[in-house]
Write a structure and sequence with these properties.
By secondary structure, the chain is mainly alpha-helical. The protein contains 17 helices and four strands. A hairpin with a 2-residue loop joins strand 3 and strand 4.
Length: 416
């Protein structure tokens, strides 16, 4: 199969199911880490993918990229902190605003061109924002790897047992990431969960009581947003990173299929579709949606370019969301298993930020650039906070806003 024309065929359903399995580990990892409902995340991924395709069909002149949208890792930190501070409903208002931010961005790109994005958000702003996300989350990863809750306030699994499980899980992810081949290389997190879960079972730290009580069919725990300005101003700046990441995702799928999706349907349309998908996800209590690179990798291997295959993936995701046993099984994954994965995951997020900052166009000998990077990192990681108009600004959000403002107002360095 080598065509990107949309052809909905029953025989493509198995390929669609395979692609969902490729995405499954990452898709459910985000809600597991943040306290959201995994079944809702499955439903939101399916709903978001179909919504994206409809936007491309009716606004993007029927040019539909073969991509699957699901839970965004970039929002793990703000969702985790938001759920603790304002609950799921309040946090969803912030995520709804993030989706609206994508839509506004798409309109700005439509009118001012793609270069506008690079001028507003250069690597000197994006790099340290991404770095701070990984660094702020690292204590939670360590606590969970040691068998504690994310904030370290309670011990859930004895430390010696937890360390064995978390390190074996981490080793499995590393091995598959480095030496895995074919489709196996695309699912290192899923392999890590399976290995860690198996070890946990033999060590007696898996509790199946909730699985036996869970019904086969159940309605996911949908949650509608409740307006919370603190959550909105906290989460909104973090939407910058995945908005920029969206460009890389479109470049990747364009390279795989041989079609330039940045031109047709256009970056403004794909970003619009992403924004609508994220808003729909937040309306039901799910994490924001983003293009999944592991599915793009699977498309590369299989050469299955028909975007209708992703429709099948979306339909299967929605169907699985209503199987109560699946959510119950996912809830039995022990804390050390997730901690072992997070040790690598949050470190990688930091490295991605470093890589972004290491762009050849960034001169870190320039006092202007040094000031922008320094202020973002210290404000975000140090926990700087203040109130303006009764609304609190702190952490990553404050760091990102400060970086954007400094980038706009600080004079450019004069050539010597």
């Amino acid at each position: 199969m080598n065509s990107t024309d949309y052809n909905f065929r029953l025989k493509d359903s198995l390929i669609g199911l395979q692609f969902l399995f490729v995405a499954f580990g990452s898709l459910v990892l985000v809600p597991i880490l943040t306290g959201l409902d995994s079944s809702v995340a499955l439903f939101a991924a399916g709903l978001g993918t179909i919504a994206f395709q409809l936007v491309m069909k009716f606004i993007g002149k029927n040019e539909i990229p073969p991509i699957f949208l699901a839970s965004s890792f970039a929002f793990i930190a703000p969702i985790s902190l938001g759920v603790q501070k304002w609950g799921i409903a309040g946090t969803m208002s912030g995520l709804l605003a993030a989706g609206l931010f994508y839509i506004v961005f798409s309109l700005l790109i439509r009118f001012f061109g793609k270069g506008f994005l690079n001028r507003l958000l250069p690597p000197t702003v994006i790099g340290p924002v991404i770095m701070s996300i990984g660094l702020i989350l690292s204590p939670a990863a360590v606590n969970m790897a040691m068998g504690k809750t994310g904030d370290g306030s309670a011990v859930l699994v004895p430390q010696d047992t937890a360390m064995i499980v978390s390190f074996i899980t981490l080793a499995a992810v590393l091995i598959i990431s480095i030496i895995g081949k074919g489709l196996l290389k695309l699912v290192p997190i899923l392999v890590g969960i399976v290995v860690g879960y198996s070890i946990s079972f033999f060590m007696g730290i898996v509790d199946f009581s909730a699985v036996s009580k869970a019904p086969w069919f159940s309605i996911p725990n949908f949650t509608t947003p409740e307006l919370n300005w603190n959550a909105i101003f906290f989460i909104l700046p973090i939407a910058i990173a995945p908005a920029v990441e969206h460009i890389g995702d479109m470049l990747a799928i364009s390279s795989v299929t041989g079609k330039n999706y940045l031109e047709k349907p256009g970056l403004h349309n794909t970003l619009l579709g992403d924004g609508i998908a994220t808003m729909l996800a937040s309306m039901v209590g799910g994490p924001p949606n983003t293009t999944y690179s592991e599915v793009t990798g699977a498309v590369t291997i299989t050469k299955a370019f028909n975007p209708a295959i992703m429709t099948w993936s979306a339909l299967f995701a929605i169907a699985l969301a209503f199987i109560g046993k699946i959510g119950a099984v996912l809830a039995t994954i022990p804390v050390p298993v997730m901690g072992g994965i997070m040790l690598l995951l949050f470190g990688i997020i930091t490295v991605v930020g470093i890589k972004t900052l290491a762009n050849p166009s960034v001169d870190l000998n320039c006092p202007r650039n040094l000031a922008i990077v320094a202020i973002i990192l210290v404000f975000a990681i140090g926990g700087m906070s203040f109130e303006f108009g009764g609304v609190g600004f702190s952490g990553i959000g404050l760091g990102a806003i400060s970086g954007i403002i400094l980038n706009l107002i600080l004079p450019k360095a004069r050539p010597e």
